[in-house]
Amino acid sequence: MKYEVVMGLETHAELNTVSKLFCGCSTKFGSEPNTQACPICLGLPGVLPVMNERAFEHSLKAAIALNCEIGRFASFDRKNYYYPDLPKNYQISQSYFNIGNNGYVDIVVKGKKKRIDIHNVHLEEEAGKLIHPEKSDDDYSLVDFNRAGVPLLEIVTEPDMRSIEEVESYMQILRNILLYIGVSDCKMQEGSLRFEASISLCEKGAKVYGNRVEIKNLNSMKAVLKVLAYEISRQGDLLDKGKEVLMETRLWDEVNAVSRRMRTKEEAHDYRYFPEPDLVPVWIDQKWIDETKKTIPELPVNKRQRFVKEYLISDYDAGVLTEDIFLADYFEACVKLARNSSKELSNWIINDVLRELNERKINIQEFTVTPKMLVELIKEKSTVGNAIAKEVFIEMVNTGKNAQSIINEKNLAQLSDVDELNTITANVIEKNPKAVEDYKRGKKNALAFLIGQTMKMTKGKANPKILTEILKEKITTGPK
Ligand code: ZN
Ligand code: MN
Q1: Which residues make up the environment of ion ligand 1, defined by Cβ < 5 Å?
Q2: Domain ranges of the chain
Q3: How do residues 260-305 score in pLDDT, each as one tens digit?
Q4: Helix, strand or coil for residue 153?
């Protein structure tokens, strides 16, 4: 690749408030169309917007978590454009005094840390949603205003990303931060998290960036990665042929896996931003900033590094455990109860707990096995063996009972009683004279066969170590 790729990202995250940004309408997702709308969010004449305090607090929290400079006040502006899903013909957004400016997010690619600068973080209102008929000859579209006025946080990076891997890491870490601080559910399937990407190519080492292409309306991280890979090759081909890359806005066509022109620079909107006269600026004092800081938990990248250091687990495992703040809390609650077995606990959570969560499509908060129950099970492992412990775990998930009662009820405790094992092995030896002879003649796997037969008789409960010793001794010394 002879070109340098320069990429930036704008992220829109719906904030998880109960009501909309400027009115009392519900923000609940999936309701009947146009049942959550009122004169304010429909933009009828004579109404006034009132700021949702929680939405503002969430935005401030995000701006602080993204290391932004917070000004003495934030104000709101009108962004004017005409579109059927925008009833007022303008969007209340921020342009002149954003909630946050000049922040950054540290990302990690292939073990290397890189800082991505955040240009600004601002708060605005969502538009409604247009629903187009599936048949192309139907000459109407429908509009649902339930989404109009939902609080939307926009996070704009500088063009700091140089590879697809960096973009992927940035999106994942940003999403994780928003989830950790609890300001958005970040459900991409419900449109709570959406992206716009910008990308240009230039000769390596060039002082001036190439013409920038923007891609709008990307509804998933996957779509972002696909369209950027597509643009790298499309723009690279144009430059190879000595052609110009046009400065334009494009859309990603998921079905045909191509990007298409939406509008060129000449058709770009002039939004004629001006201060929103119906809203007063929000003053932010140091006390408010300090109090908000206290509500921000340890963030994912820091937690991941601490897990590696404190619990001596791999960076990969720490990454999986800190993907979800509640999973990280679950792990730490287990470690506190068990001590000294963080590696084993991490393995159980990553392999067994996550598998059950995925299969059941539930999250860790809904999981029936509490940290205390998991730690108890791992203690029981020394008496029941690994294979049975795994079975008991599944039973715990299904019934919500603890390990001890399942082991008692199902009589699963491992058989370590020497007298009992003596009787059973004597019986096995008597029934399998050929295997015994084979073993005596040096056939090692004959012993495995005899162990297997004993396991069968004890339904897998025999303690394998004691059992093997007894069998070996019996065969070499003969019947007593
Ligand atoms: Zn409303
Ligand atoms: Mn926006």
Answers
A1: 23, 25, 38, 40-41
A2: 3-288, 297-409, 418-477
A3: 999 887 777 789 999 999 999 999 999 999 999 999 999 999 999 9
A4: strand
